[in-house]
Structure formats: C-alpha cells, structure tokens
Specification:
Elements lengths: L5 E9 L6 E8 L5 E5 L6 H16 L7 H11 L6 H22 L3 H4 L8 E9 L2 H13 L4 E6 L11 H8 L14 H4 L14 E2 L2 H19 L4 E5 L6 H10 L7 E3 L10 H7 L4 E3 L6 H9 L5 E2 L9 H13 L3 E2 L9 H13 L6 E2 L5 H6 L5 E3 L2 E3 L12 H4 L16 E2 L5 E2 L2
Parallel strand pairs: 4-5, 4-12, 5-7, 6-15, 7-8, 8-9, 9-10, 10-11
Antiparallel strand pairs: 1-2, 2-3, 4-14, 13-14, 15-16
Helix pairs in contact: 1-3, 2-3, 5-8, 9-10
The structure holds D-gluconic acid and magnesium ion.
Length: about 425
C-alpha cells in the first residue's frame, strides 16, 4: 500500500484539430507524479467537466491512488442514478488517469499490469469515404499502399445526407446562404435548411436521409470495391443506425456476398432485439456498441452471441476498469473487441484502447483516427500508427502526456446549438437517429 493520495483533479479542454477533446489530469501528493485520462464526450463537454469538478473531485481528494477498483465502484454509486454518458465519461477520465499513475509507480505499461501482451501491436482500420465508389476506391488504394489491410468504406448518396462521407458538407457548401437554396432530392432544400445558419460552425452537417437510396449507393460501393480489389482486403461499413430495422435485416443478408469484416450499427441501441433476426438469417459479421452506456445494453448482446465485435467507446462506459471486464466476458462467448476510436476519442483514449488491445486474447480490430500534427504535438506519446497497426511505445502507464501550454492554444470554438450532432431528417421531415 503506497502512501500516495489524490491531491487535485483538473479538466483540460482543447481542440487542436477542430474536434473538442476532454482530458482529466489527476495530480498526487508525490511530487511530479500525475496521470491523464480521456473523458471526451465531444457533443456535451461542459456537463462532463461539471460532473468532475462539482462531484467527483470533492468525493475523491485525499483518497489513495492505489484503490482504482474501489474508487470506480464508489464513484459509480455516488450519483445514485448511474450509467449515463456524462457521468461515465467523468469517471473514465479519473479511472484512466489512475491506471496511468499505477503504471508509472510500477514502472510498467498498463498492458503489463493487466497481464502482459498477447500481440506486439494492434491491427487497425482506417476510413475511406468519397463522393463516388471510384473515389472511395482510389483512397482505399492509397491506404493499401501504406500497408493498411482493413478499410472502412462509406460513399455519398447523391442528393442526400449520408453518414461517414462529405456529402453533407458538400451540400452545406452549396447552400452558402438561404437565398441560394436549391432543390436537392424529393423535397426543397428549405426543409433541410430549417435549422441551418451559414454563419455558424456545425458539429456535423445535417440534411435529408432516405434509406433506399442510401442502401442502393452502399451496395453499388461494395460491388465496385470487390470488383476492383477482390476479396484480399478487409472492408468494413457503418450503417450508423439510420435505416428502419426490417430494412437492416434485408441489408445484412444482401451484403453477405461481399464478405465484410463487419457491418456496424445496423440498428439503434433501442432496436437491439432485431439482431436476433439477423443472426437467424445470415452470417454477416456484426459490430455494435459505440452508443452503449450501460451493462444492461451489453450483457444480452454478448451472452446471446448477437454480435461479433464490441464497439464500445471506452469513456462512455466509464473507462478501463469496466471495459476490461466487458472484454473478459466477450472472451468467454468468443465475441471480439473493436473499441470505438474516431477523431472524437482523444489520443489519451486511443492509448487506453491500445492497452486493452494488446492484452486481450479476444482482440478483434482497432479503429484508428489518423491525428493531425497539432493534435500529436499537444499529446506527446500518442500511439504511432504504421504498417497497418497501432504500436505501443513501452513507456510506463498509458505512455502518453498532454502539453498543457500547447493545449491552451486551442480553446473550444463556439458552435451552433452548443455543438449538437446536427439534425438529419427523412424527406418528410421526420428526425433520423444520426
Ligand atoms: C465511428 C463512429 C463515429 C461517430 C462519432 C460521433 O464508427 O467511428 O460512428 O464516426 O459518429 O464518434 O461523435
Ligand atoms: Mg460508428
């Protein structure tokens, strides 16, 4: 038992490459010993900061840094109501920082604290998107030449907003101001522009989404990719929960012949039960989980083997402490990990992903965000991505730091509606789960 206590807990906001990141720094009574953790909920950063500063900090100051499990469990019930994204992200920031501290005290990386490495590096997938299957394929080719073997493919649906490609931005660019409104599909763009203010910065372009045109463009994309590259490269696709569930069942069967590595977010978490129908009808590998915040959502999906890959956003579930247990449950049911790792997981969060990636036997794949130079400067020790993998640097703890002076150069910018994920609508105006 060390005599090292928690002396201070601070929240750092920074957006070096235009994505709002939330980092927690836990400082200790041992001079120079501190840890960093990711608490990034990019659409709602300020309530996460308040949850830490107003509640976790007074609750934890003076506690021993040794007792990560006890700190996590007592923090989890300290709000009585639990399993929310805001509270889980707040706990994750502290939890990951405590694992960082424990590794530094032990002089070993966190994956060694967990029992060592099952692999030297974590194979990753990267994102290829474009306005046409040809453009997506061209970007794929460039990634393949750099040694990437797993590539997520997303294509525009002409005339509509599509997740994962730039069509929304393209259309936003078109409609610079309300007076330039053009019809873009089955309804005048005015409905799409209902909430749009060209003067504001949007977290994510909205637009009109229609399931059938989207599915046709995705199927055309897979046909093109398989025709051009064959089956030697692994392709992944994210439906992003947008289509009516029964169409999702049809779509999963329709894509079976393209042998995807996985099909992601086929349904919304609220429609998890539909995965049973897919399992009975086809063998398309299924991934789900970035939107989950609660063990209640996780357990049925793993115990009934309704998914193949756990796509949890580790800070949304509360950090390394709960997710290492979820990974262990997955191993017993042969369900693999595929932690969420987009640009709005901070490099600290990617480092936490990597610790579990290297240790878990049931590792599946790791999503990698290829961070810009500014972000990598703010976060020295960011996991390197090359030769198709994410690599550890072998340093103790999470192996990463934050340069607070540099981070302060990139304060949060003002965003429309506080930075909400923008409103996507069906042609008749109904809001779509985004
Ligand atoms: C993914 C995710 C992201 C989310 C984003 C939300 O598979 O990487 O779907 O792109 O949409 O993280 O903020
Ligand atoms: Mg996703």
């Amino acid at each position: 038992m060390s005599n090292v206590k928690i002396r201070d807990i601070r929240v750092i906001f920074t957006e070096p490459d235009g994505i709002r990141l939330v980092i927690v720094k836990v400082e200790t009574t041992e001079p120079g010993l501190y840890g960093v953790g990711c608490a990034t909920f990019t659409q709602r950063p300020t309530p996460v900061k308040a949850a830490i500063e107003d509640y976790l900090k007074p609750f934890l100051l003076g506690k021993s840094v040794d007792d990560i499990e006890d700190i996590w469990q007592s923090s989890y019930v300290s709000s009585y109501w639990r399993n929310s994204g805001v509270l889980n992200n707040a706990m994750s920031g502290v939890d990951e920082a405590l694992w960082d501290i424990k590794g530094k005290m032990a002089g070993m990386p966190v994956y060694d604290l967990l029992g060592g490495k099952a692999r030297e590096a974590a194979p990753v997938y990267v994102h290829s998107s474009g306005s046409s299957p040809q453009e997506v394929g061209d970007k794929m080719e460039a990634f393949m030449e750099k040694g990437f073997h797993h590539i997520r493919v997303q294509v525009d649906t002409p005339g509509y907003s599509t997740y994962g490609s730039h069509s929304g931005k393209a259309k936003t660019a078109q409609a610079k101001s309300k007076k330039e409104q053009v019809s873009n599909g089955p309804i005048p763009i005015t409905t799409w522009l209902r909430d749009y203010d060209p003067a504001k910065l949007y977290a994510h372009p909205g637009g009109v989404f229609e399931p059938k045109p989207y599915m046709r463009s995705a199927l055309d994309l897979f046909e093109h990719i398989r025709g051009r590259f064959g089956y030697g490269v692994e392709i992944l696709h994210d439906v992003h929960e947008r289509i009516p569930p029964i169409l999702g069942v049809w779509f999963a069967k329709e894509v079976e012949k393209y042998q995807l590595f996985f099909l992601e977010d086929l349904f919304s978490p609220e429609d998890n039960e539909y995965f049973r129908l897919v399992r009975q009808q086809c063998s398309t590998p299924i991934s789900m989980g970035e939107l989950w915040n609660s063990p209640h959502e996780v357990v049925p999906m793993i115990k009934d083997r309704l998914i193949d890959f756990i796509r949890i956003h580790i800070s949304q579930m509360g950090g390394i402490t709960p997710c290492r247990k979820i990974a262990a449950m997955g191993e017993l049911f042969n369900v693999r990990t595929a932690w969420h790792g987009p640009g709005d997981t901070s490099p600290v969060g990617h480092a936490a992903n990597l610790m579990l990636d290297l240790n878990c036997t049931n590792f599946g794949i790791q999503e990698a965000a290829l961070f810009g130079d500014r972000t990598k400067e703010v976060f020295p020790g960011s996991p390197e991505v090359h030769d198709g993998c994410m690599w550890p640097n072998g340093k103790p703890g999470l192996g990463i730091d934050i340069d607070e002076k540099l981070a302060a150069k990139y304060p949060f910018r003002e965003r429309a509606f506080g930075g909400a994920w923008d409103t996507v609508r069906r042609a008749d105006g109904t809001v779509v789960k985004p």
